[in-house]
Amino acid sequence: MKxxxxxxxxxxxxTHNYAGLSFGNVASAKNQANIANPKKAALQGLTKMxxxxxxxxxxxxxxxxxxxxxxxxRKLGFSGSDANxxxxxxxxxxxxxxxxxxxxxxxxxNAATISPSGDxxxxxxxxxxxxxxxxxxxxxxxxxxxxxxxATFNDPAHFAHHPALPSVDHFGDEGAANHTRFCHEYGEQGxxxxxxxxxxxxxxxxxxxxxxxxxxxxxxxxVARLHQLSDQHTVYAQQNxxxxxxxxxxxxxxxxxxANLLFCHQQAFLDQAAVKAELxxxxxxxxxxxEAPTALVSVADAVSSYLFNSQLLSMPNGKTVLVIPQExxxxxxxxxxxxxxxxxxxxxxxxxxxxxxxxxxxxxxPACLRLRxxxxxAEIAAANQATFINQKLYTRLNTWxxxxxxxxxxxxxxxxxxxxxxxxxxxxxxxxxxxxxxIYPFQQ
Length: 444
Ligand code: SUG
Known about the structure:
With about 450 residues, this protein is α/β, with parallel strands linked by helices. About 35% of the residues lie in helices and about 15% in strands.
């Protein structure tokens, strides 16, 4: 059956800020305490969504989380009115308050792992929200993420929703940031490629030394079992531990794939030759790998420019487009490499540059901001139609952002009880615009 790849981007929430919460993510650490502009962040994201929809791609939007997360603060012992909870947390544990205010759910590549119906034995699309257990501020996302996914893909005849894996380091799961699906035709059986950072139950295996490996092999295997994937069509690869220590905290910072093309850095994987051989063999037939050599693009340049955190898109006209952040244009070595890449006889025809600086400053590029869902016509029709970006929804969301979002936010503002009220008012209206029902704790 004919299918396409839809992209569901995370809408940036009203509390977007720079709190330096992600050890191992260089940009997050570097920009800690910068002044954030949540309004600009949300509008930059919407601009990318609208541009891709205008190019004829199916583009959806996923709602943000409720932040500040008063429920979690109460679980940690803060009590009284909501304003009291914020006040106590700000006084006694400001760093914990910051973790409960992050707009990190914007990076929907980490929302879940998704297997298209062409790969699963019951022919449904399977969703498993990522537990994101390595970072506390992200580990509190998966419950509401599950609610959002169920409200967006809300027909049990087509969509199978699993709960997140157990929230413990052994099953650390970062979702689609470490998962790629290759295929010859989107609607047919594909190859699912799971990349992990370490083995949880075998300490003889190599692992990074400086920064954490957030994702385990055992988590990937559990997701593959839940999604009813077959071994012949699944490939597991370990990330090169040295590049995790150089700031590559997710595989999508060093590799991107789509259809029958893998674009990656020369140092992306441990035993890269074996990984390439297994992918090529299982893909059987026309399969392309573009490997950027270290001599032209260093790992440091890849991390600072986010060259590989790009979206590799198959356009309706058959062309392949690479969506990159402006930071690639600002790096002369990366830009020169890209120019030579697209000018030759390359599987990539064109680059498309976006200004996503607000998100980039927290380590989130074009690919982090989107969750891919391969869907056939029946599945597109079964999804929540109010979540697909078109001119009307784009205009409505722009107006909604202008009305509800601040253009300046610092860590000190997070305790402001007005910010909580503004955020809840915004999200309440958003659930109506996107026809999501009651998905947030404050709506229960
Ligand atoms: O999990 N940054 C996110 C960035 C996620 C990028 N996603 C992908 N590569 N797919 C993270 O590290 C920083 C928040 C802060 O420091 O305020 C943050 O959570």
